[in-house]
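Budget justification aside, the reviewers requested a transparent look at the raw inputs and outputs of the sequence design task funded under Objective 1. We therefore reproduce one unedited record. The lines immediately below are the structure tokens for a 161-residue chain.
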């Protein structure tokens, strides 16, 4: 049983180290979730998706709740980076687009991020990066499976209960 506790401590330590680096040492001109949402809105509009709303597209691609995406959009709108307008034909549909300032901001951030993360991938190695992505997806799947099993058995996943 001690091996699992050691793995848990190593996992938590590595996770917190990575989070600290991503949030504390990499300086961005905005919150990471804001930048990712901007990028997803831009992609949605470039693809001209009609079979799914922009909000649902963003939510599904970055795994945030609808309320979390709404909060980020409110912040982005307040900064003048996005424009939210209800469709003139179907008032239930919310159209979301980047403002000119939002496009410029995203372009600058993407250029800098591409250069930075390309350096990280080169340092870590393309094959290691691919393996890491696969393992991270496998870990996410394992978390989802455990949560689903707990919910099926009416067990709480809230660690503070």
């Amino acid at each position: 049983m001690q091996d699992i506790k050691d793995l848990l401590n190593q996992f938590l330590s590595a996770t917190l180290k990575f989070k600290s680096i991503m949030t504390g040492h990499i300086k961005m001109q905005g919150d990471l979730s804001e930048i990712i949402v901007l990028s997803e809105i831009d992609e949605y509009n470039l693809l001209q998706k009609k079979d799914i709303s922009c909000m649902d597209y963003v939510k599904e691609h970055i795994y945030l709740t609808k309320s979390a995406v709404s909060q980020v959009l409110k912040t982005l709108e307040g900064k003048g980076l996005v424009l939210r307008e209800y469709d003139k034909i179907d008032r239930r549909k919310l159209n979301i687009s980047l403002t000119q300032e939002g496009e410029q901001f995203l372009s600058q951030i993407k250029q800098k991020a591409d250069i930075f993360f390309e350096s990280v991938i080169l340092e870590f190695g393309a094959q290691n990066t691919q393996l890491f992505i696969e393992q991270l997806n496998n870990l996410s799947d394992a978390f989802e499976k455990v949560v689903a099993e707990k919910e099926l058995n009416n067990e709480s996943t809230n660690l503070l209960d």
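Residues 16-112 form a domain with the Arc Repressor Mutant, subunit A fold (CATH 1.10.10.10). The radius of gyration is 19 Å. Computational costs for records of this kind are itemized in the attached budget.
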